[in-house]
Structures are given as C-alpha cells and as structure tokens.
Design a protein that fits this description.
Strand order of the largest sheet: 1-3-2
Order of helices and strands: EHHEE
Number of strands: 3
Distance between the termini: 14 Å
CATH architecture: Orthogonal Bundle
Largest sheet: 3 strands, antiparallel
Shape: globular
Helix content: 25-40%
CATH topology: Arc Repressor Mutant, subunit A
Structural class: alpha+beta
C-alpha cells in the first residue's frame, strides 16, 4: 500500500487488534524504532502531519 496514508488508529487496529487499549503515541515510538532499524532507508516511512504514516516509493 505504498503512497497510502494510514492513521495511527488504523495501525493500532491492524497490529494490536480493536480490543487492545493502547495509546496512539505507541505507534510513533514503534515507527521511530523501525526507522532506526532501517539504517539508510529511514525515508521509506513518511510522516503525514496530523494524519499518520505512509510508505514512500522513494
């Protein structure tokens, strides 16, 4: 789903399920960790301000 924006709520629902009670900021922490793990390809995950995240083609 490149170039499609996913909200934090959508990501929480897909990863942890709709019954989990987790703060949306948890997604931000995990995205930060993913970016660090991607070393050199951090730009693949783009932040869309006030909306969520997307995978970039570039």
């Amino acid at each position: 789903h490149r170039e499609r924006v996913f909200s934090r709520a959508q990501l929480l629902d897909k990863v942890w399920g709709d019954h989990a009670v987790i703060e949306e900021r948890t997604v931000d922490v995990h995205v930060l960790r993913l970016r660090k793990a991607l070393k050199g390809a951090e730009g693949l995950i783009r932040t869309v301000r006030s909306v969520g995240y997307m995978l970039s083609e570039k």
